[in-house]
């Protein structure tokens, strides 16, 4: 019952208990003293305190509701983070398992391991490509979108390293000179090692910092390590691995081995580049260069590496593209197209470095590379 209903009941009781006066003549009724408002004593209190109590209750209810809403939002955020890092952990666990198997091959090589090496490396490639697809399919929380790009990049490093390791290993096993083969193997292993550095520096540590700033302590960022030991990427390790896979040290390669850079043409103009003068080229979003290589040795060479590097004063990091000539016979010349470099119109002089080889057993490296001064207009 409200305080308005209390007043109505009180007025009704007074009307029943006070005797009614008979109405007198109209003149007498008008001449009487006008009565003022009736003092109802303590039962006529102001309604303000009750209104204040109601307002206080409403404020408390609003605060409780807002706290509950914030709690729900926090729980939803934590749940989203947990799901994300669980997905990352599942991917890194499968990827690290491949790295452990590869590390085991390098730590315990033998002629028996060599028999199944090609198939194993092929399986590693296939599995890593599937893992990379899973990494790209993850939808990260907004707080970790930038770090997730580095996570995907670390998986790409692993795919790239494994794709290059198989031909490098097979090429080295087919050659007699272990030093040259080990150099190619070490190059690919260093790419795998770079993937570990990228994961730790640009994903693991920044994510840990973000969770700490948000005061979330019950979620851990998964750790990941592909190569169990950084020494596995060294060239000396590669030499030792090749010796054990082959059953012992091998003799140096007999006969002459070597490739030479014949020349470079820029497309679409088709003009050959001159190493002794400035070359003016038209700037384009994607440049294509035709690199011609000659086998000046006495044996067929396989998987001959070819690379182009563009260095510009205005760019902090050089641009580099790589390719391979699958096979080239003695005295044969082959051309490989390399594209992907970007250049803007400028008056500055850039340096285009082109190299091919070395191949196993190659001693003379003076004709393997050249540098060209290029201005893009």
Placed side by side, the strands forming the largest sheet appear as: 3-9-8-5-6
Please give the count of helices: 8
Shape: flat
Rg, Å, rounded: 41 Å
Task: Summarize model confidence as the mean pLDDT.
Answer: 83
Strand content: 15-25%
The tally of strands reads 9
* Category by helix and strand content: alpha+beta
Number of folding domains?
2
Helix and strand run: HHHHHHHHEEEEEEEEE
Q: Helical content, roughly?
A: 40-55%
Give the end-to-end Cα distance, rounded to a whole number of Å: 91 Å
User: Tell me about the biggest sheet?
Assistant: 5 strands, mixed
Low-confidence runs of at least 5 consecutive residues: 1-5, 24-34, 68-73, 250-254
Features:
Immunoglobulin-like; 18% strand; single chain; alpha+beta; 377 residues; 2 domains; 9 strands; flat; 4-stranded antiparallel β-sheet
Helix and strand topology:
Layout: H1 3-17, H2 26-31, H3 48-107, H4 111-115, H5 117-137, H6 145-174, H7 178-213, H8 235-246, E1 259-267, E2 271-272, E3 278-281, E4 287-295, E5 301-311, E6 319-328, E7 333-341, E8 350-356, E9 369-376
């Amino acid at each position: 019952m409200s305080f308005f209903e209390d007043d109505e009941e009180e007025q009704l009781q007074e009307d029943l208990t006070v005797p009614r006066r008979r109405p007198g003549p109209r003149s007498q009724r008008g001449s009487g003293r006008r009565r003022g408002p009736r003092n109802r004593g303590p039962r006529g209190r102001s309604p303000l305190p009750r209104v204040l109590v109601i307002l206080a209750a409403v404020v408390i209810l609003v605060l409780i509701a807002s706290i509950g809403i914030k709690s729900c939002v926090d729980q939803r955020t934590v749940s989203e983070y947990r799901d994300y890092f669980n997905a990352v952990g599942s991917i890194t666990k499968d990827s690290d398992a491949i790295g452990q198997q590869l590390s085991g091959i390098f730590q315990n090589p033998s002629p028996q391991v060599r028999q199944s090496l090609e198939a194993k490396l092929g399986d590693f490639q296939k599995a890593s490509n599937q893992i990379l697809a899973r990494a790209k399919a993850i939808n990260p929380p907004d707080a970790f979108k930038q770090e997730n790009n580095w996570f995907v990049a670390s998986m790409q490093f692993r795919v790239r390293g494994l794709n290059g390791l198989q031909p490098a290993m097979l090429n080295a096993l087919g050659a007699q000179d272990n030093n040259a083969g080990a150099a190619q193997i070490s190059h690919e292993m260093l790419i795998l090692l770079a993937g570990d550095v990228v994961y730790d520096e640009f994903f693991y540590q920044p994510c840990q910092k973000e969770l700490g700033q948000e005061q979330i302590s019950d979620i851990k960022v998964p750790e990941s390590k592909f190569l169990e030991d950084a020494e596995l990427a060294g060239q000396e390790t590669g030499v030792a691995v090749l010796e054990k896979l082959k059953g012992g040290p091998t003799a140096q390669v007999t006969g002459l081995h070597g490739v030479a850079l014949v020349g470079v043409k820029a497309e679409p103009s088709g003009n050959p580049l001159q190493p002794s003068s400035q070359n003016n080229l038209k700037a384009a979003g994607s440049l294509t260069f035709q690199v011609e290589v000659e086998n000046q040795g006495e044996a067929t060479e396989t998987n001959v590496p070819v690379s182009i590097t563009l260095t510009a004063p205005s760019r902090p990091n050089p641009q580099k593209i790589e390719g391979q000539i699958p096979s080239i016979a003695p005295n044969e010349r082959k051309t490989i197209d390399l594209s992907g470099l970007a250049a803007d119109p400028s008056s500055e002089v850039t340096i285009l470095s082109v190299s091919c080889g070395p191949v196993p057993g190659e001693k003379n490296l003076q004709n393997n590379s050249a540098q060209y001064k290029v201005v893009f207009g």
